[in-house]
Amino acid sequence: MSGKNDEERIVLSESGQNGQVGHDDDDGGCGSCIGGLIWVFSMILIFCTFPFSLFVTVKQVQEYQRAVIFHLGRVKRGGAVGPGLFFIIPCMDTIQVVDLRTVSFDVPPQEILTKDSVTVSVDAVVYYKINNPLSAICNVTNAAQATRLLAATSLRNTLGTKTLQDILADREDIAKNILGTLDAATDPWGIRVERVEVKDVRLPQQLQRAMAAEAEATRQARAKVIEAEGEQKASRALKEASDIISSSPAALQLRYLQTLSSIAAERNSTIVFPLPIELLGNLMPKQ
Questions:
Q1: CB 226: neighbour CB atoms within 10 A?
Q2: Are 161 and 115 in contact (CB under 8 A)?
Q3: Is the pLDDT of residue 27 over 60?
Q4: Regarding beta strands 65-71 and 58-61, do their DSSP bridges make them parallel or antiparallel, or are they unpaired?
């Protein structure tokens, strides 16, 4: 052996080098001979079964798909192919088709203990797409499943550092934090996370009743304060009116007449008209 490995060697770039998948062109003599024999056997089989062999040698991918071709276990030079028709050699080439459209999935409800020791159930929705088919095939076993698990973990870790008030009030900031975490983690897999939205925050029933009682008590206290302030302003206005009326005896008589006029306008059958005590005293017989 010359120190070269006869097996496939896909060189994966380190982080910071755009996550590209390289190709190892080195091949041992034994691998070349076996590959040549398989190629000759495949070509003879294709020509003998022509035109029926076209059904297995000509493949098609849609506009939104890309095909990663492995030639004897190696990534074929040129990277992913598509869209359209392409030719493969049976027994030598295998293909894996990758969908480039945006995929959405629901993160299952997560039971989370917040920073202020409150248990809440939170679910979210994530939108992502594959922008590098080679990395999505060669760097991770199942890109979709890995993204789902990572989204659930990121949701739990992010919300675990927030209080209940922050979760209820700052959903947009929380979604941005989760988006940044997911996008950075899935970049080596050739996945770009486009959007994360926190759908619903469900509180325990006991906590909901406690919060409702607290909100009701707060509203009642505010109503009592407003009512007291109104009575205070009304008493001040009445005091000022009484001071003005008491300064002129005729003003009090005019007020009596005005009250009588307003009562008569309502067509009441009974009218109660107040009389001054001094007037009644003059009408009573003197002892």
A1: 10
A2: yes
A3: no
A4: unpaired
Backbone region of residue 267 per phi and psi (left: phi > 0; alpha: psi in -120 to 50; beta: other values): left
Least confident of 10-24, 218-232, 255-269: 10-24
Cβ atoms of 68 and 134 closer than 8 Å: yes
Instruction: At 146, give phi and psi (nearest 5°).
Output: -65, -40
pLDDT tens across 157-189, in order?
A: 988 888 888 888 888 888 999 999 999 999 999
Contact between residue 197 and residue 176 where contact means Cβ atoms under 8 Å apart: no
What tokens were used for 82? 């598509």
- Residue 238, CA distances (Å) to 37, 78, 147, 212, 278 in order: 112, 93, 72, 39, 23
Nearest to 44 by CA among 109, 90, 8, 98: 90
pTM attached to this predicted model: 0.62
85 within 8 A of 66, measured Cβ to Cβ: no
Question: How far apart, in whole angstroms, are the C-alpha atoms of residue 44 and residue 99?
Answer: 33
**What does each C-alpha distance from 169 to 134, 202, 207, 212 come to in angstroms?**
40, 14, 17, 17
Alpha helices in the chain (DSSP H): 29-48, 54-57, 133-138, 143-159, 164-169, 171-186, 205-246, 249-264, 277-283
Q: What separation in angstroms does the CA of 120 have from each of 138, 207, 208?
A: 38, 10, 11
- Percent helix, strand, coil in the chain, to 5, is 50, 20, 30
Contacts (Cβ under 8 Å, ≥6 apart) of 156 = 110, 112
Q: Do residues 174 and 161 make contact, with C-beta atoms less than 8 angstroms apart?
A: no
